[in-house]
Amino acid sequence: MNEHLHIGIENPSTHRKQFLAISIDTINILTRLEKISNIRSKKAFHISKLNAIAKKLSRSMAEFKESLPSAAEPSFLTKEKQKTKEATLKKSEVSPVSKNLEDELRKLKEKIDAL
Fold first, then answer.
1. Are 62 and 55 within 8 A, CB to CB?
2. How high is the pLDDT of residue 92?
3. pLDDT for the residue numbered 27
4. pLDDT at 9
5. How far apart are CA 115 and CA 102, in angstroms?
6. What is the C-alpha separation between 51 and 53, in angstroms, rounded?
7. Over the Cα atoms of the chain, what is R_g?
8. Long-range contacts: 77-86, Cβ < 8 Å, 24+?
9. How far apart are CA 47 and CA 35, in angstroms?
10. For position 96, what pLDDT does the model report?
């Protein structure tokens, strides 16, 4: 009962070469996966480090802004702001061309209603 049964394989060298090629490909894939996982862990570490630095920087900026003395705006800045406000108001006013178009539109609507 303890007999060994041997089966002959045709072209054993080609099968061995195929098995070796498959194992080499598998090892290459596993090494790539290992590199990718290392890169991902390094990326996560650096992102957390960057977030910590950004928080520290924002705290430092807030402290710096609080330490600055408060001062009234210089008069030339207020004048410039008034000029820009006036310019935006002038731009927002209706131009004469658009008034003419509105008048024409109103007249056309009246004609349609009259029909």
1. no
2. 58
3. 97
4. 82
5. 20
6. 5
7. 40
8. none
9. 18
10. 66
The total of other beta-carbon atoms located within 10 Å of residue 91's CB is 8
Cα dist from 111 to 40, 101, 106, 108, 115, whole Å: 72, 15, 9, 5, 6
Per the structure block, which two tokens stand in for 101?
């178009």
Sign of CA dihedral 26, 29, 35, 40: negative
To the nearest 10°, report the CA torsion of 107, 109, 112, 113.
-100
Domain boundaries, the chain: 12-67
Show the tokens assigned to 96: 């004469």
Q: Which residues of the chain have pLDDT under 70?
A: 1, 72-74, 76-77, 89-97
